[in-house]
Design a protein that fits this description.
The chain is α+β, with helices and mostly antiparallel strands. It contains 4 helices and 6 strands, in the order H-E-E-H-E-E-E-H-H-E. Strands 3-4-5-2-1-6 form a 6-stranded mixed beta sheet.
Length: 124
């Protein structure tokens, strides 16, 4: 299995976004943090699901697709116990999968607005 840093951020992001789309994740956003001083990674990917079941399914889809297609495993996964906010850490890409109410409360897009925020077009 390849080291997760051997894939480029863009390649990882594309696989992750496709996995989110497969499970009908909503309002997919990427935040490019490469120009932000002292950022914790190069990119955030944020989306939400409508239920804890959907949030869990999105997280599972990301893990499966990254393992099978990108041959990359997450460094750390947090939040699967309650699936209200799942964080998946691929070192240079952090994925946040929220329940909508938690996403609206934490407002990561605003918190990290120094980065370049890009709304991903719906696949529909």
């Amino acid at each position: 299995m390849e080291d997760s840093n051997s894939l480029k951020v863009e390649q990882k992001s594309n696989v992750i976004i496709e996995a989110i789309r497969e499970k009908k994740g909503h309002r997919i956003v990427t935040i490019d943090l490469t120009g932000v001083e002292n950022s914790i990674c190069d990119c955030f990917i944020i989306c939400h699901g409508e239920s804890v079941t959907q949030v869990g399914a999105i997280a599972e889809s990301i893990d499966k697709k990254m393992t099978e297609e990108a041959r990359t495993r997450a460094h750390h996964v947090e939040g699967l116990q309650n699936s209200q906010w799942v964080l998946i850490d691929y070192f240079d890409v952090l994925v946040h999968v929220f329940l909508e109410e938690y996403r609206d409360f934490y407002k990561l897009e605003e918190l990290w607005a120094d980065g370049k925020v890009t709304m991903v077009e719906d696949d529909n």
